[in-house]
Design a protein that fits this description.
Blueprint lengths: L10 H13 L4 H8 L3 H18 L1 H9 L1
Helix pairs in contact: 1-3
C-alpha cells in the first residue's frame, strides 16, 4: 500500500472555509464537496474560529478605555 502524505492547510485557507461554513449560505455538505475536505475537519475549523473570535477584540478593549 502506498503511503500518502497528509495535506496541510495554511491558516488563511482554514479561516476562509470556516467563515464560509459559518455563513451557512451553502450546506456543510456543499462546502465539503467543493473543497474536497472531510466534514469533521470543517466542523472543527468552524468551532475553532468561533471560539477564537472574541480574542480579536481583546486588544481593542484597551483602546476603548482611552476614548
Amino acid at each position: 500500500m502506498a503511503c500518502t502524505k497528509r495535506r496541510q492547510f495554511i491558516p488563511d485557507f482554514k479561516v476562509k472555509v470556516a467563515i464560509e461554513a459559518i455563513k451557512e449560505r451553502e450546506t456543510l455538505s456543499q462546502v465539503v464537496q467543493k473543497r474536497n475536505l472531510q466534514p469533521a475537519q470543517v466542523i472543527k475549523w468552524k468551532k475553532e474560529c468561533k471560539d477564537s473570535m472574541s480574542s480579536v477584540f481583546e486588544n481593542s478593549k484597551k483602546d476603548d478605555k482611552r476614548e
